[in-house]
Design goal:
alpha+beta; Heme iron utilization protein-like fold; six-stranded antiparallel sheet; three-stranded antiparallel sheet; 6 helices; 9 strands
Length: 202
């Protein structure tokens, strides 16, 4: 009973807070030049926190400035269309970065659906990763393909929220690792789906 009461309270509170996602943050011509110069000495990463701090730019802006063959961005409003492709990846590494802490969760992504009473997108039960997401707070979503830290190729999707910070990210093959053929093919379907949508930045 207490759990049901708590969930009802959360749902009512979420419904009363009609936060609106900001427009995607896109790099200017000067910012693109600065990022390109930085990438000459430091390879692009799925999560660009280090480069963002060095250039004093939002992480989302740095990712938007990456070469077109390494980053494909769509507006946060496309969340459901992107998320519904991720369960096909199988076991995935999810990163959640909050207050300088990095949480790593190895889990399959579960399907979900938007709540009829709040702004939450509720994930189905059945995997270690579960919860209630807030797509309405997302600025943009980027599929990123970069050289891996340990060789090979790193593939993932990053979800950017207020201020251009990454809210969470999903990787196939683990961060810096190489995905198998089946996972790579599943990621490529996510990438193709995102390429078919309007781009976050022109």
């Amino acid at each position: 009973m207490k759990k049901l009461t708590l969930m009802a309270t959360v749902a009512v509170f979420a419904a009363s807070w009609q936060a609106q996602a900001a427009a995607p943050l896109c790099a200017s011509a000067d910012q693109k030049t600065a990022v390109a110069e930085n990438l000459k000495t430091k390879p692009a990463m799925i999560a660009n926190g280090g480069t963002a701090r060095m250039l004093k730019l939002p992480e989302e802006v740095v990712t938007s400035a990456m070469p077109a063959d390494q980053a494909v961005g769509v507006a946060g409003t496309a969340f459901a269309q992107v998320w519904e492709t991720i369960p096909a990846w199988g076991e995935t590494l999810f990163l959640v970065i909050k207050g300088g802490n990095v949480f790593e969760i190895h889990s399959a992504a579960m399907p979900g659906k938007a709540s009829e009473r709040s702004n939450f997108y509720n994930l189905e039960a059945g995997a270690p990763l579960g919860g209630h997401l807030r797509p309405d707070l997302l600025n943009s979503i980027y599929a990123v393909v970069t050289p891996g830290e340990r060789g090979g190729t790193t593939r993932g999707v990053v979800f950017y929220g207020p201020g251009g910070e990454s809210m969470f990210a999903a990787f196939v093959g683990g961060e810096g690792g190489e995905a198998g053929a089946e996972q790579t093919a599943a990621f490529d379907k996510t990438l193709a789906a995102m390429k078919a949508l309007p781009r976050a930045c022109s």
